[in-house]
Design a protein that fits this description.
Largest sheet: 7 strands, mixed
CATH architecture of the largest domain: 3-Layer(aba) Sandwich
Helix content: 25-40%
CATH topology of the largest domain: Rossmann fold
Structural class: alpha/beta
Number of helices: 15
Shape: globular
C-alpha cells in the first residue's frame, strides 16, 4: 500500500523544515523530497556524513549481566533501570535535546521523583546565552522575519552546514525574502571560526582566528563599533566592524564553537555588541541549535521552574540550578535520552566511569557510543517519524510532528513515564 504525505515536518534538526513530501510504501518511507542529510539520517536511518551507510536500529531491551548482554522483556529492563535510579544518591538525566516535548515533560517528572539532576545536552553554550538574554533584554525575531528583512549575517563559531544544513537556503544567506528578493546578492555575510569551514567558500569575510584570540577580536569589534580604538591589534576587526555598522538589519548566529573558549565572556560580549548595534539598526543574537527540540527543553524549564539552567533535585533544600556542565565524577548513575553523551566524553572520563562502575541507562532508537557503554538499553521509536510529538523550532515556534509510519517500539515519553511509576 502506498501513501503520499505532503508538507511533513522533518525532525532532522532545529529548522524543523515543513516542506518535506514523503512517500510511504508498506509502512516504510521509500521517498522524501526536499530532505537534507540530517533529515535522511532520521527517516532512512542513514549516517549523517555517510548516507550510503545505515545506522543500526536497536530492537530489543538489553541488560548487561556479568559483562555480557542479555535480551530481556521490556518490563524487566524498566525494573532494572528503576532499581539503578532508586539506589543512586546523585543521579543525572542527560540529553533530551533530541526528544519531543512530551518526553521532556516526562523526564522532568522522573528527575523530581528520582531526586536527580536534569542536564540539557547543550547546556555548555545555551545556559550562558539565556543568562545574557536576561541580562541585556535582547530583541527576538522568527525565522521568517529574518529571511524577509535581514541583510547582514555574522556566523560566530557556527557552521550551519554541519548543524542545520538547509538553514542557509531557507532562512539566511541564500534565502529570498520579501525585502531581499535577490538572496545572497543583496546580503553581506561574514564568519569567525577557529578552523576554515565550508562557509569560507561563499561568505564575504571569513576570519580564522587562533585559540585565545576570540575575546580580543570581539572586544576590538565592539570598541570600533562604538567609535573607540581597539586596545589590541587583531586581524579582521575593522572589516567585521564595517560590515556590522552598514547593516540595516543584522543577525549574529553563534553555535557550539563558542563553548570551546571562554563561553560566558564570549556570549556576554556578543550580547553587549548586539545592544550596541541596536542603537543604529535592528540586530539579533541567535543560537544555531542542531538538535531538533533543544529550544523546547529550555521553554519547559523556564515555564515550570522559572530558570533555563540545569535543575538539580538531589539536594536537601529542594531544587537548585546549575549553569556549569555536570561533573560526572560526582554522580553515581546516568540516564541518557535524546543524546549521545559518550560521543563527547574524553577517554579519561569514560575510564573514570568504568573504574567507579557507574551504572548507565540509555534510551535510544539507534546503536551509539552511549548504548555500547550502557548497563540497560531501552530501544525507543523515532519521535516525529514513528510516533507523534511536539517540538519547538529554533526560533521558539511550537509545531506538531505527525506520525509517518508505525513502530512496535514504545515512545521515549512512555518509557520515561514507566520508569517514574516503577520507582
Amino acid at each position: 500500500m502506498e501513501a503520499r504525505i505532503e508538507s511533513a515536518i522533518c525532525p532532522g534538526c532545529a529548522c524543523l523544515c515543513d516542506d518535506i513530501d514523503v512517500t510511504v510504501v508498506d509502512n516504510r518511507i521509500s521517498l522524501a523530497d526536499n530532505i537534507c542529510l540530517w533529515g535522511a539520517s532520521k527517516m532512512f536511518s542513514h549516517q549523517r556524513f555517510h548516507p550510503k551507510k545505515e545506522r543500526r536500529r536497536l530492537q530489543q531491551p538489553q541488560i548487561k549481566h556479568r559483562g555480557r548482554w542479555e535480551t530481556v522483556v521490556y518490563e524487566d529492563a524498566v525494573n532494572r533501570a528503576a532499581e539503578i535510579l532508586s539506589q543512586a544518591r546523585k543521579p543525572v538525566i542527560y540529553g533530551l535535546t533530541n526528544s519531543g516535548c512530551w518526553a521532556q515533560e516526562a523526564a522532568l517528572t522522573l528527575a523530581r521523583r528520582a531526586r536527580a539532576r536534569l542536564e540539557p545536552a547543550d547546556l555548555d553554550f545555551k545556559a550562558p546565552y539565556y543568562q545574557s538574554l536576561m541580562k541585556y533584554g535582547l530583541r527576538w525575531a522568527p525565522l521568517e522575519m529574518i529571511r524577509d528583512e535581514a541583510d547582514t549575517f555574522l556566523f560566530w563559531g557556527a557552521n550551519p552546514l554541519h548543524s542545520c544544513p538547509r538553514h542557509v537556503v531557507r532562512y539566511s544567506v541564500f534565502s529570498r525574502g520579501r525585502f531581499t528578493e535577490r538572496g545572497i546578492e543583496e546580503r553581506r555575510t561574514a564568519a569567525v571560526d577557529l578552523h576554515r569551514t565550508e562557509l569560507a567558500e561563499f561568505v564575504n569575510i571569513f576570519v580564522q582566528i587562533e585559540p585565545g584570540q576570540e575575546l580580543a577580536l570581539l572586544e576590538g569589534v565592539r570598541r570600533t563599533v562604538s567609535g573607540q580604538k581597539p586596545t589590541r591589534p587583531v586581524r579582521g576587526v575593522r572589516r567585521l566592524a564595517n560590515l556590522l555598522q552598514e547593516a540595516s538589519y543584522g543577525v549574529i548566529f553563534f553555535g557550539r564553537g563558542v563553548s570551546y573558549g571562554p563561553t560566558e565572556e564570549l556570549l556576554d560580549g556578543l550580547a553587549a555588541l548586539t545592544v550596541e548595534l541596536n542603537q543604529k539598526a535592528p540586530a539579533i543574537l541567535f543560537p544555531l541549535s542542531a538538535d531538533f527540540n533543544s529550544v523546547g527543553l529550555y521553554h519547559l524549564l523556564l515555564r515550570e521552574l522559572g530558570s533555563p539552567l540545569a535543575p538539580d533535585f538531589s539536594g536537601d533544600t529542594g531544587c537548585s540550578f546549575c549553569a556549569e556542565p555536570v561533573r560526572l565524577q560526582d554522580r553515581d548513575a546516568l540516564v541518557v535520552c535524546g543524546a549521545d553523551l559518550f560521543w563527547f566524553l574524553t577517554l579519561e572520563q569514560i575510564s573514570d566511569l568504568k573504574r567507579r562502575r557507574t551504572p548507565v541507562v540509555v534510551l535510544s532508537p539507534f546503536a551509539n557510543r552511549s548504548a555500547g557503554h550502557a548497563d540497560v538499553v531501552l530501544p525507543v521509536a523515532l519521535a516525529g517519524v514513528e510516533v507523534p510529538e511536539i517540538a519547538y523550532r529554533m526560533d521558539g515556534l511550537p509545531l506538531c510532528l505527525p506520525q509517518l509510519v508505525s513502530s512496535s517500539l514504545p515512545a521515549d515519553s512512555q518509557v520515561l513515564q514507566d520508569l517514574a511509576k516503577a520507582l
